[in-house]
Design a protein that fits this description.
20% helix, globular
């Protein structure tokens, strides 16, 4: 009897959407799948780790910035396929954060960091839904 191959499960990840005045903190990714694109600091949620804890941990690891986490802004599905089928499926949970301290320095898988207003974000090569999530965070204030 053949046992079917296990189906890949979606990967849960947290994003730290950090607001400082009218600007948001973004990182330019150095690794696939979004190498070279700008997005929010974030990464996979570890087993037993809350969404908020994961967002703040990833923020510290990638930028050295400290923030106060608020509510979840939204959740995003990032599903990529090729001719052979599913490449990956991430569920990105965006957490609203207010900047507390630290000047962002690129570390971990961040190639570069920057603080951008919404107009500047529109002109960046960015990951999925960055502009929409940034607008949501700024509206929350």
């Amino acid at each position: 009897m053949n046992t079917p191959a296990p189906r890949p499960l979606p990967i849960a990840a947290a994003l730290a959407v950090v607001v400082r005045g009218e600007r948001l903190l973004l990182v330019r990714r150095s690794h696939r799948p979004d190498a070279g694109k700008w997005g929010f600091p974030g990464g996979k949620i570890e087993p037993g780790e809350s969404v908020v804890a994961a967002a703040l941990r990833e923020l510290a690891e990638e930028t050295g910035v400290s923030a106060e986490a608020g509510d979840v802004l939204t959740a995003l599905d990032v599903i990529r396929r090729d001719e052979a089928g599913l490449l990956h499926h991430y569920i990105l949970i965006a957490v609203f954060c207010r900047w507390l301290s630290g000047e962002a320095v690129a570390a971990d898988d961040a190639e570069e960091t920057g603080w951008f207003d919404l107009g500047e974000i529109r002109h960046l090569s960015r990951s999925t839904d960055v502009e929409r999530v940034a607008a949501m965070a700024l509206a929350r204030g």
